[in-house]
């Protein structure tokens, strides 16, 4: 059953829904139900077989996990931004979504990616979840839910890459998560984002889950 997503629908300006499917995936039944939606997110734990051109694989979501220990330490030069949301942070949020399904699916051509990531960084700023380098060369967002933390956005400015800032941002997020009571940290990314996957694996994270995400787009 496709569930309507009111928030996404209001943000994008057309009907959006989502569905979780399994091996009992019925493509024709889905296509009939999807006629009232413009966009539907399809989540599956395994690859789906389909023939319709309205359905497209847009992401293989890879979630990495690491159990935090008492020795977690971070970069002391990171800060929590104050005042108004700096537009340099908005640009970093866009950088962090370079492999986002909302960016790689070229059928979404009404600034869906920009709308979503601009709102994402705004909410992270309001919730004081952002840690940034002093000159906004990079930033990371970390949220806590119970005894688990999650990195949402992580980006380094193109001019500052290759200096080890990525690892320092991850370590800073670990330290902040540990400080707020988290025992472990999750990092979702795209399997196609090889630099990010290598970064997380090099800092002790292991792949804990893989999920296939498809977009249905009504032509």
Automatic annotation (TrEMBL):
<dbReference type="InterPro" id="IPR000182">
    <property type="entry name" value="GNAT_dom"/>
</dbReference>
<dbReference type="InterPro" id="IPR050832">
    <property type="entry name" value="Bact_Acetyltransf"/>
</dbReference>
<feature type="domain" description="N-acetyltransferase">
    <location>
        <begin position="88"/>
        <end position="219"/>
    </location>
</feature>
<keyword id="KW-0012">Acyltransferase</keyword>
<keyword id="KW-0808">Transferase</keyword>
<dbReference type="Pfam" id="PF00583">
    <property type="entry name" value="Acetyltransf_1"/>
</dbReference>
<protein>
    <submittedName>
        <fullName>GNAT family N-acetyltransferase</fullName>
    </submittedName>
</protein>
<dbReference type="InterPro" id="IPR016181">
    <property type="entry name" value="Acyl_CoA_acyltransferase"/>
</dbReference>
């Amino acid at each position: 059953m496709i569930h309507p997503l009111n928030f996404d629908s209001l943000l994008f300006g057309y009907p959006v829904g989502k569905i979780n499917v399994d091996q009992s995936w019925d493509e024709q039944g889905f296509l009939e139900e999807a006629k009232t939606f413009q966009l539907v997110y399809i989540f599956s734990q395994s690859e789906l077989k389909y023939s319709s051109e309205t359905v497209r694989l847009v992401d293989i979501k890879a979630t990495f996990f690491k159990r935090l220990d008492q020795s977690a330490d971070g970069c002391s030069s990171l800060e929590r931004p104050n005042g108004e949301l700096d537009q340099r942070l908005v640009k970093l949020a866009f950088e962090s979504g370079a492999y986002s399904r909302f960016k790689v699916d070229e059928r979404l051509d009404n600034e869906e990616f920009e709308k979503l990531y601009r709102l994402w960084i705004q909410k992270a700023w309001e919730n004081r979840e952002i840690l940034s380098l002093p000159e906004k060369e990079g930033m990371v967002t970390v949220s806590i839910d119970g005894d688990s933390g999650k990195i949402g956005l992580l980006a380094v400015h193109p001019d500052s890459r290759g200096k080890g800032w990525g690892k320092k941002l991850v370590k800073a997020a670990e330290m902040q998560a540990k400080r707020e009571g988290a025992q472990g940290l999750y990092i979702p990314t795209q399997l196609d984002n090889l630099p990010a996957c290598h970064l997380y694996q090099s800092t002790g994270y292991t792949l804990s889950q893989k999920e296939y995400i498809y977009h249905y787009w009504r032509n």
